[in-house]
Amino acid sequence: MIKSMTGFGRAELVRNDFEVVAEVRSVNNRFLDIQVKLPKQFYHLEHEVKNIVRDYVTRGRVNIYVNLKYENGDAQNGLEVDDHAVRMYLKLLQNLKKKYRLGGKIKIDHLLNFADIFSFEAAGEYKQETWEIVKQVLSQALTRFSEMRSSEGEELGKDLRARIENLNRVVARIEKIAQDRHEEDLSQLRERVHDLIADENVDEQRLQTELALMINRMDVTEECVRFRSHNKMFLESLKAEQSIGKKLNFILQEMTREANTMGSKANHAEIAHLVVDIKEEVEKIREQVQNIE
Asked: Three-class SS of residue 180?
């Protein structure tokens, strides 16, 4: 199943004395990078959260945010005064007043202009029962997060399958042109050989080399067969249950290599133009694959 690397999930649970909110967000990343923000009393359990997340995600940058809000008392709600910041601002204001000989008293109104004198930190003692509830809410958020990624992945899969089918049609067109031109190319080859043989001083070794090079330059069958094989592997990989993003990138590299070889062998303008179309389509696929886990 294809899963997008970007997603969002949220869950919350309200009890009589507290409320738990968990949010999960992710963006593209080459590896798995999990960032966790927990209430203060659960800081030491960050590793446990990361292990839970690894059951849902294998690639991407994932941000986990859990908030625990108590209903009784401001202190438990986590809104606190940052005493250190208050002292620093008071000292600065006093120095300012002294330096510029300003009149009047320093009032609380002056301090309220500095928002960072307040801090919000969920407080409270660690309780195993509360932690179990937090994990339950986090799991719900992760489930919704996975559902969203799967939904986006399904849409990506439809788009990718359509593009691969388009590539198959272009490759078939190239094969048809190459086949139709076979007789004409052979005719040109015979003329070239005839010209060489007409020369009394013809070098037999040079003649054989020239023939081999021209035949090789004309034939793109091998590249077309390999390209279709890569397309088939790509489509089969889309059905895999595990993470496929990296594998798809490797297959795309092989597709690009085959297209470049076809382009270098192309002895016909239409084939050269079709190779450009292939490269353009492969690049569009590559952009989409960057979003796949």
From this structure: helix
Length of the chain as a residue count: 293
Contact 282, 153 (CB under 8 A): no
The single-letter code of the amino acid at 204 is E
Calpha distance 286→171 (Å, rounded)? 18
When pLDDT is averaged across residues 224-248 and rounded to a whole number, the result is 92
Share of the chain above pLDDT 90, in %: 51
Q: Is there a contact between 221 and 175 (Cβ–Cβ < 8 Å)?
A: yes
**Cα(117)–Cα(85) distance, rounded to whole angstroms?**
5
How is 219-268 classified by DSSP, letter by letter?
--HHHHHHHHHHHHHHHHHTT-SS--HHHHHHHHHHHHHHHHHHHHH--S
**Three-class DSSP labels, 76-94:** HHCEEECHHHHHHHHHHHH
Mean pLDDT of all residues in 58-82: 76
CA-nearest of 114, 107, 142, 134 to 34 is 142
- Angle between helices 245-265 and 269-289 in degrees, nearest 10: 170
Q: Given the structure tokens 């970007």, which residue do they identify?
A: 6
Q: Which residue's structure tokens are 């849902």?
A: 56
In this structure, the dihedral spanned by the alpha carbons of residues 128, 131, 137 and 138, taken in order and rounded to 10 degrees, is -130
Q: Which residues does 205 contact at the CB level (< 8 Å), separation at least 6?
A: none
Locate tokens 């569009």: which residue?
284
Q: What is the pTM of this model?
A: 0.69
Instruction: Flag whether pLDDT at 200 surpasses 70.
Output: no
